[in-house]
Amino acid sequence: MAGPTCSVLHSNAVSAEHVVSELIALVAHARDGEHFTVKDTRPIHGSYAGEGRPFILFSESIDAGTADAIAALTGWYPAQGIGFAAMCNGDEDHRILAELALWLAGRLSGYVDMGGEPDLPAGLPGNAHALPYDTASGWEAHATLLDPTALAAWMRCQAFRMVK
Asked: Is 112 left (phi over 0), alpha (psi -120 to 50) or beta?
């Protein structure tokens, strides 16, 4: 069963490829193109060490309208999104996904697009923004954008889960 996903929005597409390669080299047991298996996130200050967990890496362009809306919310203009998808849905997959995103967002000075609306507690430190968008069925939903400080705080909460 597929698991949670998220994207790291960043403003420097040139350096991002190098940083992503560094991340994968630090945590992956095996890599085949966009598919990789994570066995140990301790090299990126994570907590997982165990059997290989499958993930997919993807890149997303950000259309000008969405980038403008993000800039209006955050004061920061994204150039690209680098996404991760966990291919399983266990607690460890949610934790690994967050650790990957936290490290990458920190290195790229970016935001993590949670891909939906997690049940964040009030008063979370850092910056959390709700980005509205219209769904295909015509109702408004929100994508939650977290800076590394907010994501790290969310990961310490008992109710922590990435969005699936």
From this structure: beta
